[in-house]
């Protein structure tokens, strides 16, 4: 018999919903409509039907995997949820645990799964290339790396036509800062407070959150006032925040800088979109000081924001260097730096090499990702579904006082939770609790922000409106229970 729990309130724009805490495996196998069904004057919300059943799992148990992790893996590796989730299968926007229970993936492996889990076109490209040649070295010729570089360059504006492949976003940002320093002859880099650019030596310096910074030598980076439209002192007035960059150059450097690095939408920082007018003003200031402008597109790139293919395009600027990873490979470990021929030439002064960067398997997969984005019109889908999802999330703000802000673009959205809207007190504990409750009902989301109080919603770009409805219904329900 189903256990029916009535919510404290109902959405103003949709029928009231009731979520049944029956087995998720049962929910995942139901093939009827995703719309609510009436039962005993209540409503039961259903996860959208999906025509896929994973093969039976015969591997180690969750307990055994957890024991091995605790014994053999670094203690720095953590996991979400009070009861860790053992995921063994994935298909498009869904994930499955060892019992075959289906989960709606609204996190996308931290904005990484772009086309969908195990997209057949991407899988085929990887498998077919692996059967022929998994790895050689860029010292030999292979068409896979050249084909992908050509296709990638075609997606960027102006003279941004030279590609250097890396293994990750951290490596890409390290190389970008090196290029800026070599090309300009200056050392100082300016980044934003609350930013995250990686965890290697240089990128940790550019990162401006104490949560991600160890007490090691970090020099040559200045952190400017963050143009935060929710918590910032100037609200949405981008040019006022930009004045701080000018002051940093005047008072904190020799008057010239190597470059400026920023995400158009801060991912780890809590899905914060930079205030309008900020990037054009800062780019102008940086170039007057002899520096280069670096766009970190590791999370916001590859059609995720919907309105544009790259995050920086939404601000009407053209950077000198663009870094990317995550969505570039749909889960393959690959990143890239794209810049102009003139800037790229500085690497010829010495030997600069990356053993795995541009390996045939990864670049074949990356090219397949680009083709899927175009063939399946995933950018348009990110815009359409993302706009709908943001509207529905915003409607929850009028119902639940814990929601302080809803923001972002496309399928890169954030919901900031607060204990008090006026004081904007971060609801960190509540955020973790709600994530656990949503997981129990089959929805996986991420969290971020300096205080860990922001839901990060970055699903695969094949997300559908029915998925968006289920996500919001579940979020509404668990908030109603608090």
Notable traits:
482 residues, alpha/beta, 7-stranded mixed β-sheet, 5-stranded antiparallel β-sheet, 20 strands, 17% strand, disordered N terminus
Work out the helicity level: 25-40%
CA radius of gyration is 23 Å
Identify the overall geometry: globular
The mean pLDDT is: 91
Helix count, DSSP H or I runs of 4 or more residues: 14
- Can you summarize the main beta sheet? 7 strands, mixed
What does this structure look like?
With 482 residues, this protein is α/β, with parallel strands linked by helices. The protein contains 14 helices and 20 strands. A 7-stranded mixed sheet has the order 6-14-13-12-9-7-8, sandwiched between helices. Strands 15, 16, 17, 19 and 20 form a 5-stranded antiparallel sheet that branches. A 4-stranded mixed sheet has the order 3-4-5-18. Strand 1 and strand 2 form a beta hairpin. The chain is globular and about 60 Å long.
List the helices and strands and how they pair.
Layout: H1 24-29, E1 37-39, E2 42-44, H2 62-72, E3 87-91, E4 94-97, E5 102-105, H3 108-111, H4 120-132, H5 143-153, E6 162-166, H6 169-184, E7 189-192, H7 201-206, E8 221-224, H8 238-252, E9 259-263, E10 265-266, E11 272-273, H9 278-288, E12 292-296, E13 321-324, E14 335-339, H10 341-344, H11 360-375, H12 378-397, E15 403-409, E16 412-420, E17 425-426, H13 428-440, E18 443-444, E19 446-448, E20 454-457, H14 465-480
Parallel strand pairs: 5-18, 7-8, 7-9, 9-12, 12-13
Antiparallel strand pairs: 1-2, 3-4, 4-5, 6-14, 10-11, 13-14, 15-16, 16-17, 16-20, 19-20
Helix pairs in contact: 4-11, 5-11, 8-9, 12-14
């Amino acid at each position: 018999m189903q256990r029916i729990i009535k919510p404290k309130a109902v959405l103003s724009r949709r029928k009231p919903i009731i979520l049944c805490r029956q087995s998720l495996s049962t929910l995942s196998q139901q093939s009827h409509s995703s719309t609510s069904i009436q039962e005993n004057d209540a409503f039961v919300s259903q996860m959208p039907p999906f025509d896929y059943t994973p093969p039976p799992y015969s591997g180690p148990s969750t307990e055994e995997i957890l024991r091995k992790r605790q014994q053999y893996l670094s203690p720095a590796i953590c996991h979400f949820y009070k009861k860790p989730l053992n995921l063994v299968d994935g298909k498009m926007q869904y994930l499955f645990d060892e019992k075959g229970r289906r989960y709606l993936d609204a996190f996308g492996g931290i904005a990484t799964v772009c086309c969908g889990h195990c997209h057949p076109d991407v899988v085929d490209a990887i498998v077919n290339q692996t059967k022929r040649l998994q790895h050689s070295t860029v010292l030999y010729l292979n068409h896979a790396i050249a084909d992908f570089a050509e296709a990638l360059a075609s997606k960027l504006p102006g003279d941004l036509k030279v590609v250097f492949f890396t293994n990750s976003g951290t490596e890409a940002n390290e190389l970008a800062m090196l290029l800026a320093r070599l090309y300009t002859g200056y050392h100082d880099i300016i980044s934003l407070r609350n930013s995250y650019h990686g965890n290697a030596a240089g990128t940790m310096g550019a990162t401006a959150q104490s949560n991600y910074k160890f007490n090691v030598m970090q020099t040559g980076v200045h952190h400017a006032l963050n143009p935060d439209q929710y918590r910032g002192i100037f609200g949405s007035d981008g040019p006022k925040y930009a004045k701080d960059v000018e002051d940093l150059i005047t008072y904190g450097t020799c008057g010239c800088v190597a470059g400026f690095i920023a995400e158009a939408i801060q991912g780890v920082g809590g899905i914060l979109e930079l205030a309008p007018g900020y990037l054009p003003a800062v780019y102008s200031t940086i170039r007057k000081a002899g520096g280069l402008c670096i766009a970190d597109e590791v999370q916001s790139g590859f059609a995720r924001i919907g309105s544009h293919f790259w995050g920086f395009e939404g601000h009407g600027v053209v950077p000198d260097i663009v870094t990317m990873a995550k969505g570039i490979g749909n889960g393959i470990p690959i990143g890239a730096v794209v810049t102009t021929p003139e800037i790229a030439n500085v690497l010829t002064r010495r030997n600069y090499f990356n053993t795995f960067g541009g390996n045939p398997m990864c670049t074949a997969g990356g090219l397949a990702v680009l083709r899927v984005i175009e063939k399946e019109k995933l950018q348009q889908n990110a815009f359409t579904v993302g706009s709908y999802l943001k509207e529905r999330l915003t409607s929850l703000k009028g119902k639940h006082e814990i929601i302080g802000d809803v923001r972002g673009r496309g399928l890169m959205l954030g919901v900031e939770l607060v204990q008090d809207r006026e004081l904007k007190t971060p609801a960190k504990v509540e955020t973790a609790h709600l994530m656990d409750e949503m997981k129990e009902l089959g929805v996986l989301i991420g969290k971020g922000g300096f205080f860990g109080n922001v839901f990060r919603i970055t699903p695969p770009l094949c997300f559908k409106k029915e998925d968006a409805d289920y996500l919001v219904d579940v979020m509404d329900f668990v908030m109603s229970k608090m």
